[in-house]
Structure formats: C-alpha cells, structure tokens
Amino acid sequence: MKKDELIHMWQEGNDRMFMDEQTDKDMITKYLSEKTLKGNRKINFNLVFYGAIQLANIILLSMNLAGYMNNPAIIWILIPQLILTIGTLVFGIDVFYKFREINNYSESLQKLIQKQLWFYRRPYELWLVLASISAIILISNLNLYIDNDNGSYVINNKAMFVGVTLLAFLFIYGTQKATSLLGLRKLKAYLSDLQQGVLNFSEGIERTKKRYLWLWVAVCLLLTASLIIGILTALK
Fold first, then answer.
1. What's this model's pTM, rounded to 2 decimal places?
2. Which of 112, 190, 205, 218 is found 20 to 30 A from 106 (Cα to Cα)?
C-alpha cells in the first residue's frame, strides 16, 4: 500500500471520528437542553401560581380591613400583611422577568445553566421564603373572613394556633425548598455532564427520581393530611 493511500485512510478515519464525537456532543447538548427547558416550565408555573396567591391575598386583606375596621388590634396585624403582600408581588414580578431574561439571552447552554444556578441560590431562595409566608397569609385571612363575628375574631387555643401556623409555614417552605434543591442538583449534574461530554450524572438523577417518586408522593400526602387535621383542630 502506498504512503499516500495510508495518509488518506488515516485522514478519513480522523474525520469520521471527529464527526462521531461532534454528533455525540450535539445529542448530549440537545438532551440536556430539553431537560433544562422542562425545569424552566416548573419555575415559571411556581412564580405565576404564587403571583395569583398574592392577588388573592390583596383582595382578602382589603375585605378584612373593611370588615374589622372597628377592631384596632386586628387592623394593625392586617396592615403589615398588606404591605408585605404588595412587596412580595412586586418582587415576584421582578424575579419572573429576571428568570425570563436569563433563558432568552444566554449565549450558550453552559452559560444558561450557570446563570440558572445563580438564580436558584440568590433571588429564588428569598422568593421561596416570601411565597411560603404568603400561603400562611392566605390561610389566616380566609379564616378571618369566614369567622368574622361582627368585627371580632376569637382564637380559643392561642398556643396551638401559633404552633400549627408555624408547622404550616415549615411544611410549605420545606416542600418548596426540597423541590428547589432537587432542581439545583439537576443543574449541577447537567453542567458537569455538558463539560465532560457524557450523561452519567443526568441519567443517574433520572433513575433516582423514578425510584423514589411514589415515596415522595406518599410522604407529601401524609404530611398534608396531618397539617389539615392540625389546622381544623386549632380552629375548633
């Protein structure tokens, strides 16, 4: 075999290997891009859902302010809640547009994931706390509205009421935080796999998620049932 033929065969082999590597890289990028997009939809839904809760809170708080106008003690509790709710709504809108900007103007998938990691650790973490508080404001103001007795509201067992309210906040924040940590872990896995050109960590997370999905659902249902029973007991 001539030297020129050997060189040609070697070049063809290198070109084929490069094309295979490029194809694998493109497939990995496409797979991770789809997974990242799926996570984006969950975040957007969360932000919109709790934004709707803020609007519901503003309406309920306004109605309760009118209903308890002659009760200064409750009025001074409702006013800070209204201010906090409006502030949370404005902050939530800002967080929503920050997340949208990250997804629309990132130069590459790697840059996108890096910016999303920052988003999870900074603005979204603060928003989780405020969103959990807003859920408690919604529950408490529903009770105030339903049990309004000519401008007065009676709590029979204050210690239990405070305890159940605290547990409700911890439960809501805990579930949100657990979901956030899972999203953070996924992004770290996606970034690592993207940099290494493999899907080891990403596929491992998917297998773990499927394995423990039913356990997670069962625990959430059990805790939710316990929380509802506790709230009903505290309100008796």
1. 0.80
2. 205
